Amino acid sequence: MAKHQCPKCHSPISLSYLLFSKFTTQYRCVKCSALLASNRRRKITGLTLAFFSAFLFSLINSHIQNSLLATLVVFIVFFSILWLVPNQVELVDENVGSSNSSL
Question: Which bin fits 54, alpha (ψ -120 to 50), beta or left (φ > 0)?
Answer without folding.
Answer: alpha
